[in-house]
């Protein structure tokens, strides 16, 4: 069970690293840019960054990470 959780976590981590390298090259914000500005400027900052960035950060990014965990479980079942 612990190995399964570690495998899933490592898979999500690797996915997050890859996504955080690719996404800024497409002109979309990551949490590394958005988070500090949100803390500094408050929730009004959400209205300044645009709909695409909000959709990415609050809906698509969590979906991608969740999908990567789901994929890790499928790969784990094949391997083990």
3D structure, described in words:
The protein has 80 residues and is mainly α. The chain has one domain (2-79). Helix content is 81%, strand content 0%. The chain is built from 4 helices and no strands. The protein has helices at 2-22, 31-41, 45-48, 51-79. α1 packs antiparallel against α4 (51-79).
Short description:
This protein has 80 residues and is mainly alpha-helical.
The domain tally reads 1
Number of strand segments: 0
Instruction: Please tell me the overall pLDDT.
Output: 94
Helix content: over 70%
Unreliable stretches (pLDDT < 50, length at least 5) are none
Cα Rg: 15 Å
Main sheet? none
Query: What general form does the structure show?
Result: elongated
């Amino acid at each position: 069970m612990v190995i399964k959780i570690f495998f899933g976590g490592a898979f999500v981590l690797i996915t997050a690293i890859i996504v955080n390298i690719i996404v800024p090259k497409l002109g979309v914000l990551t949490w590394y840019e958005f988070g500090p500005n949100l803390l500094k400027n408050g929730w009004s900052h959400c209205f300044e960054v645009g709909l695409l960035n909000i959709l990415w950060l609050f809906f698509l990014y969590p979906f991608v990470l969740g999908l990567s965990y789901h994929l890790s479980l499928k790969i784990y079942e094949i391997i083990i």
